[in-house]
Amino acid sequence: MDSFGLLLDGFAAAVTPEHLLWALIGVTIGTAVGVLPGVGPALTVALLLPITFRLTPENALIMFAGIYYGGMYGGSTTAILLNTPGESASMITTLEGNKMARAGRAAAALATAALGSFVAATIGTVALTFVAPLVADFATSFGPPEYVALMAVAFVTVSALLGRSLLKGVASLLVGITIGLIGIDSQTGQPRLTFGIDSLLDGIDVVIVVIALFALSEAFGHLMTGTGGTTVQPLRERAVMSRSDLRRSWPAWLRGTAFGFPIGALPAGGAEVPTFLSYATERKLSKHPEEFGHGAIEGVAGPEAANNAAAAGVLVPLLTIGLPTSATAAVILTAFQSYGLQPGPQLFSESGPLVWTLIASLYIGNIMLLVLNLPLAKVWARLLTIPAYGIYAGVLVFATLGTFAAGGTTVDLLILLGLGLLGLLMRQGGIPVAPAVVGLILGPLAEQQLRRALTLSEGDPSILLSSGITIVLWIAVALALIASVTLPLLRRRSRSTTNHEG
Amino acid sequence: MTETPQETPDRHTVLASAGFGAVMLVAAVLVIVDAVRLPETGAAVGPAAVPLPVGVLLGVVGAALLVQARTQLATARSAAVQPKAGLRVLGMVAAVVAFALLLPVLGYVVTSTGLFVAAAMLLGAPSLWRSVAYGWALAAIVFLVFDRLIGLSLPSGPWGF
């Protein structure tokens, strides 16, 4: 009841023309970057971070939240019409969605994706409204040891989940943490990894790293591989669903939401896992299992709902504990910090009106997104006809604009190029870049908490296991590590035995 | 069906992954050397407490990537890479450097148009003049929105834009 009253206050603040305008700008940009392959919400928020420093925190955060939600909607359009995920969480949508589009049912696929996203994101936002204050309350009892354990959970799951192999995920995470070490140590004033270069004393700006790893490496990578021919499936009619489509879709939406929100809200998080689970479940429960692989509408409805519900879920640990579990969440955390706000339990008590305005604007943004995506689906589909050279040349223009705004000295530019080439190497080697971004942003926070904990105990590491919560979390770390090492081995073994038999 | 083609990686991917492992080994040495030189402080945990284990892990994971690449190289498929790919990446690097040097001299719109055109041509744009038109339009819109509307001051060059 208390959250409800605060939420109403938030709505009162969010429906001012100014806030509505920024929400609309955010969801429009978000849908566009979600649709465009190679440009995602994490990169967009990072690019806009230095450019929009003149906005008030409310306006900027409302816009960033709109971009975050909008990216999830837009990603499905690309998955369905182009057979390429516009966003990593819409990977599964390509499986059935593109098959539906090829069978001439693109409109129904887009409609179930947009409506499912709306239903899931709305339920997810309601859940966020009521769960977040409870978690924040609970988290006020957390001390440095609990934070260290939580961050360890996030590190392990992020490196195991955001890529195909644990080894490559850890490699990426470590490189991110190392980049985060550069600069003056905040607790002792000692310069670390600066090699006598003055401009490294302040560390490397997060914006520059994100631009280099996401934008530059993507453009470089495209130079290497060239433009493979892609086929955009035509969208002939307006996005509508028949009654039987709707009857088959709505249970899948609800089940997808049930997977998405809780998994997204865990400190392990991520939006990819629930989409896999939802797809597998729909396939098992479907009355038309023979349609799977040939364009089953449940296979679009479930995963799309799951990824939007997870997107809302990810905001729970982000806002209440300050723990980002995806690259976009990590960049949004940086946005909070750049306004002098630290997400965590105190955020709700100290900046309550801001948080509730932000949450209220998520509801509003969602309705805007439904309106933008259903009748205007054709307009967004047209974005896919922009040739690749235009997209990547445009990305480069915005990348240099963002770097210029973030400081823009010659050294910054050299760092940008160096990291861009490093990102190219990672892309070519199949090493995911998202764990590096999470490591870069979470690493310094984890170090701070670890040193705080060890200072409290005067160097005795047993403080890290001093409470029930920490023991449970460290067990989770161990289990996640064991699972990510053994599961692929088991899968490989079972496959090789079946191969021998067959 | 959901299986990604990860089991037999191509040669190119394996070599890039090995290269990244090598970069990590170099970084490991740098991080450890830098951490060792940090002075002892009175605090229970000094500035080197985190860099040291991070450096060791960098080395271990980097070495593991190299070993993994070594075993995968035997079975790797050969890969199709675009001809002159390296040259085009160098061209793009040169374009970004030129952008940085010319930005204060020629102003935002002209330099950004140049960067757009260079990138578009390197990426295989069919028409030079159409790229110029697109680039000019994009740069002009960015300048209007961010310089005039939001108030981020962009370099304006001798002609005011």
Can you give a write-up of this model?
The complex is a heterodimer of chains A (502) and B (161). Chain A has 20 helices and 2 strands. Residues 497-502 of chain A have low confidence and may be disordered. Chain A has helices at 2-14, 17-35, 41-51, 57-82, 93-102, 106-139, 144-161, 166-181, 206-225, 243-265, 272-285, 298-321, 327-338, 345-350, 352-373, 377-383, 388-405, 410-428, 434-456, 468-501, and strands at 183-184, 191-192. The longest helix of chain A is centred in the first third of the chain and has 34 residues, at 106-139. In chain A, strands 1-2 form a two-stranded antiparallel ribbon. Chain A is mainly alpha-helical. Chain B is mainly alpha-helical and 161 residues long. Chain B has 5 helices and no strands. Chain B has helices at residues 11-37, 51-73, 85-106, 108-122, 128-150. The longest helix of chain B has 27 residues, at 11-37. Mean pLDDT of chain B is 86; it is low at 1-6.
Q: Which features characterize this protein?
A:
heterodimer, A: 502 residues, mainly alpha, two-stranded antiparallel sheet, 20 helices, B: 161 residues, disordered N terminus
Write the layout of secondary structure elements.
The complex is a heterodimer of chains A (502) and B (161).
Chain A lengths: L1 H13 L2 H19 L5 H11 L5 H26 L10 H10 L3 H34 L4 H18 L4 H16 L1 E2 L6 E2 L13 H20 L17 H23 L6 H14 L12 H24 L5 H12 L6 H6 L1 H22 L3 H7 L4 H18 L4 H19 L5 H23 L11 H34 L1
Helix pairs in contact in A: 1-15, 2-4, 2-15, 3-4, 3-9, 3-13, 3-17, 4-5, 4-6, 4-12, 4-13, 4-15, 5-6, 5-12, 6-10, 6-12, 6-15, 7-8, 7-19, 7-20, 8-19, 9-17, 9-18, 10-11, 10-12, 11-12, 13-19
Chain B lengths: L10 H27 L13 H23 L11 H22 L1 H15 L5 H23 L11
Helix pairs in contact in B: 1-2, 3-4, 4-5
